[in-house]
Amino acid sequence: MDLMQRIEAINRHSTEPYEQAEKCLNTNYHGIKAVTKALLPLLQSSSHGRIVNLSSYYGLLRFFSGDELKEELSSIDGLSKQRLDELSELFLKDFKDGQLEAQGWPNEGGFAAYKASKALANAYSRILAKEHPSLRINCVHPGYVQTDMNFGSGHLTVEEGARAGSSHAGHGAQGRRHWRVFRPHRGCVLRVICSPL
């Protein structure tokens, strides 16, 4: 009976209301941008500044149905922060108008906003890495972690998932590592690692 209830719960949540989609983009994309902007001066003053954005398998462009959109999001040279913001707004407009599939956004299998927000955050991280070559900036998929989104069905605990980000951030660091977890919104975790502070 647990399995049937879980399937019903997943089916109920696979169609997102607009407000949930907007909140998802605000958390997973705009939230990362806001925290990064606030902390960037501190990271730039470090000789070993690191940013590790926790991403997701669902942030891969393979979930997008349109080749033009995939190409634009994968272009490091042709993409800007301003354009990412425009794409974020365009996603919400297309979501509201029921045009996700027609415009090339992720639409199959539910969680369209989550997939789009993680893809936008990945692109933002690549832009940051290009703009700040002295910093190590990466996105890490922590694995299938037990979260509210998957109703606790993940194979990894939150702690095990967090190790992916923190171990990646410390790779190649010199000296003592300091790390803090910033949670600007529930569900958004940006790990910023600096060594030394």
Describe this structure in words.
InterPro entries: NAD(P)-bd_dom_sf (IPR036291), SDR_fam (IPR002347). It comes from Zea mays (Maize). One of its GO terms (molecular function) is oxidoreductase activity. Keywords: NADP, Oxidoreductase. Belongs to the short-chain dehydrogenases/reductases (SDR) family. With 197 residues, the chain is α+β, with helices and mostly antiparallel strands. The protein has one domain (14-194): Rossmann fold, CATH 3.40.50. The protein is 49% helix and 13% strand. It is built from 6 helices and 4 strands. Strands 2-1-4-3 form a 4-stranded mixed sheet, sandwiched between helices. Helix 2 runs parallel beside helix 5 (112-131). The longest helix has 27 residues, at 18-44. The chain is globular and about 45 Å long. Residues 1-13 and 172-197 have low confidence and may be disordered.
Core attributes:
single chain, 197 residues, alpha+beta, Rossmann fold, four-stranded mixed β-sheet, 6 helices, 49% helix, disordered N terminus, disordered C terminus
Total helical elements: 6
Approximately what portion of the residues adopt beta-strand conformation? 5-15%
- The radius of gyration over CA amounts to 17 Å
**What is the highest CATH level, the class?**
Alpha Beta
Total number of beta strands: 4
Give helix and strand order, one letter per element, not per position. Answer: HHEHHHEHEE
End-to-end span in angstroms?
A: 52 Å
CATH evolutionary superfamily: NAD(P)-binding Rossmann-like Domain
Largest sheet: 4 strands, mixed
Determine the mean pLDDT.
78
Shape: globular
> What's the CATH topology name?
Rossmann fold
Cross-sheet strand order for the largest sheet: 2-1-4-3
Q: Provide the structure class.
A: alpha+beta
The structural domain count equals 1
